[in-house]
Amino acid sequence: MPLQEQPIVIGHLSSRTPAWGLTWWGEERRYQSTVFPVRRPEEGETIVELHCGTCDAELLLRVRSLALSRSIRKRWLAAAAIGSGVTAVTVAIGLGSEYAGSPIPLSTGLGATLLVAFLASIAAAGAGLFGWRNEEGLRLYSGTGRGDETHRLLSGAAEHDASPS
To answer: Where are the alpha helices (DSSP H) in 30-165?
Structure first.
């Protein structure tokens, strides 16, 4: 697979203003952006050192190959599918026993196990879907750790399966 170069936009927070709507409130953030051409590795992952165009802060960008990113997305999707399957089985067992005229009380071991499996499988399915949706192969780190309040990866993350340029 050929190496892929893609533009990555890093934003430097320039202003925050309160914002609200009928049922929500929050803040509007404005960023000054800097575009960096970043090349994905052929395999594995690499750390690319970038410098903010506004404040010259050192930023680190973890870049995964498309193959590794796809592999990780498949694992997240498998977790979501297993969680959904377990959810369906626990619901089928619960409803089946209800319709058969012998409901399973929660005070029994089977009832408690079904309840815990049902709740855990919903959480696993949600986490799997979240991980699948958010794995793009790019992660921005600041020099002090995972992130800061000033810099943000604005674009490039959503282009998971972009064609090689």
So the answer is: 66-99, 109-134
